Amino acid sequence: MIIDNSEGDGKRRDKTETTNGDCHQEIKVTDSRCLDIFNSIKRIILFKMGCCGCGDDDSAKIEPGSPERESSFSEVEVFAKNRSCTDLPALLILVLLIGGYGYFVSAAVKKGDPFRLWNGYDDCANVCGRITSRESNPEFSCKGADLRRFGYHYAEFGIDGVKSRKCIESCDNLGNETIRFLNRCIVKSNGNNPANALLNNLGVKNFFNEAANDLNIAWRELIYLLLIALASSLCILIAFRYIVQYVIFIVLSGAVVISIAGTIYLWLLWHFERKDVMSGKIDEEEGHVQAYLVYAILMSIVAVVTLLVVLVMRSRIALVSQLFKETGKAIYSMPGLLLQPIYTYIIISASLIGWLYVMLWIESAGDLYKNKKGHFHYKKNGLLEGARWYNIFMYFIMMQFYLGCQHMIVAGAVARWFFTRDKKHLSMPVTRSTCSLIRHHLGTVAFGSLIIGIVSFLRAIFAYTAKYLQKYDNAWMRALLCCCHCCLWCLENVLKFLTRNAYIETAIYGCNLCAGGKKAFRALTDNILRVAAINSVGDFVLFLGKVLVVALTVVAGVYLIQRKDGLRHPWVPIALGGLFALLIAHCFISIYEMIIDTIFICFCEDCSRNDGISRPYYMSRGLMEFVENSKEALKKL
Questions:
Q1: Mean pLDDT throughout 143-158?
Q2: Which residue among 174, 223, 253, 565 has the highest number of C-beta atoms inside a 10 angstrom radius?
Q3: What are phi and psi of 471, to 5 degrees?
Q4: Helical packing angle, 571-609 and 539-561, nearest 10°
């Protein structure tokens, strides 16, 4: 630990610097042992209770660090290696929420059975294809039959709804043409059945069977499409590293040219339309002179704004191009980063399957009762209704927790790579970042996931209650609902953006979420134009990369699948291949986006902490060009 004894303008320092090659080690010696002990205790208190080692609260401007600070700077002070646990209360709350989730799940398991939803049950609540246990209440004496031979559910509809429900041995026994769907027998000839009418109107007569047969025929081509999507995504990442400047130039030039050409075209339309009206060729009431004038004015404003933005932000756009190159270097040095989304989505998929399974238990649970028609049904009590909403709440929390863990691992590995001078000595950065997350920063990820999960849950509640306000449907109510929904959506996205950048600061300094969010907010607001360039130009280039991967996969699918014999719906495997290509491209490119944001924050912190002369930069030569004293720093380097 480096102890800095400073108070106001009076500073007493005795410094001894030892230089060994490229390594700089600073040893600070003070003239008062008591003052050392006092500052050590003060530093420990701030480390534990304040920001967990965030260091000085300096602004993150893209300019050299102030030379009045230390004349030499250790790598430990930039990237914290001595860390402590952060946001432990949030982790404790998450553990308690998981414990409460287990309580609700156990209550649903006691009164639920997923086969009630999957197989269906008859009027006596006997599950089709299963042995149903008996009830001690004599009122439900008909419950408790062995229907293992009767595995299909059939519901007969009447004018006032369901007339009866029963379990049958086979759908063929109904005597009419039927559709089998989830162990249900749906009679297509019954026009009074609303489900049958819906299926007939949608034209899904035998669609599921035909689509399944098409997938069975074209499964090899689907594997080829997945490999094409994977290869295309890797090629896009390579292109981002080497030719991204040309891609950005084409995108910006296209935006300027299209906006100017559109403006000229609309003004010409207005001119000729106005000329025809004045000459009498077109009636004034049938002409569109006023509309074309409005369109031309709006397009002119768009063209001027686009041109000014490109001219003003040209240096920031160059920084975006350099960040793409640095990201390519980081991925080349740490190829394990590309595996992080695969791990994350495997965990998310497994959790989603488990969540759906729990939802089946909750939705099937209830207390048995008899309705007015004499049919047995299950009714939920207050505890089970709470379990339904609690299950949704935990879904939002855990999904954000898994994504937050991925962000923290990537940010930690990239920050360690950035603040290592000799990249050849970099040892297992992804593994070490994962260990640091598990040992120190699970609380910070839990804190961020709780904040975002609560807002997402509030959005779900608002969407659920909005349908009950439709009876007050009027212009004011629609406007109010739209504003509330828009505000919650904006709040959720702002929180996601801030927490993601707070994770980066935590990965660098080991501080808690609040301190990291404060530092990230200050760094972003001090460089708002650069952030705007990254989030506009950079995100658009990444979006074009996703579109290109999906387009290549779909075109290859048309070539491979469309000509294959025996397919009834060739667009089904093609669309499925395009969907998988979108998921693969999103996995790789989302990691690329996180790495870009991490390198940018590291760049800001490097400029804030160092000056490039007395305290050398950690950044590469390419990034040094975007610092004010780049020439002096490069000469010193």
A1: 84
A2: 174
A3: -70, -20
A4: 160
State the amino acid at position 41 in one-letter form.
I
| CA pair distance 570, 159, nearest whole angstrom | 40
Tokens of 59: 């602004």
Q: What angle do CA 352, 354, 360 make, to 5 degrees?
A: 105
- The number of beta carbons lying within 10 Å of the beta carbon of residue 465 is 10
Three-state SS at 521: helix
Long-range Cβ pairs for the range 279-288 (8 Å, 24+): none
Q: Can you tell me the mean pLDDT for 514-518?
A: 91
Q: Using CA atoms, how far apart are residues 403 and 393, in angstroms rounded to an integer?
A: 16
The DSSP string of 601-628 is HHHHHHHHH--SSSS---S-HHHHTTST
- DSSP bridge partners of 574: none
Cβ atoms of 54 and 516 within 8 Å: the answer is yes
Closest of 162, 160, 178, 161 to residue 170, by C-alpha: 178
DSSP state letters, 227-292 = HHHHHHHHHHHHHHHHSHHHHHHHHHHHHHHHHHHHHHHHHHHHHHHHHHHHHTSS-TTT--HHHH
Rg of the chain over Cα atoms, rounded to whole angstroms, equals: 32
**Sheet of strand 178-181, all strands in order from the earlier edge strand to the far edge:** 161-168, 152-158, 184-187, 178-181
Give per-residue pLDDT as tens, 86-121.
999 999 999 999 999 999 999 999 999 899 888 888
Helices (H), 365-436: 382-418, 429-436
How many beta carbons lie within 10 A of that of residue 357, not counting itself? 11
Q: Backbone dihedral region of 52: left (phi > 0), alpha (psi from -120 to 50 degrees) or beta?
A: left
Contact between 574 and 243 under an 8 Å Cβ cutoff? The reply is no
CA distances from 333 to 429, 437, 592, 624 (A): 10, 21, 14, 20
List all residues 6 or more positions away from 190 whose beta carbon is below 8 Å from its beta carbon. Answer: 157, 176, 196
For the beta carbon of residue 571, count every other beta carbon within 10 angstroms.
15
Q: Evaluate if residue 434 carries a pLDDT over 50.
A: yes
Tally Cβ neighbours within 10 Å of residue 57: 11
The pair of three-digit structure tokens given for residue 281, joined into one six-digit string: 């060729």
Predicted pLDDT at 390: 94
3-state secondary structure of 327: helix
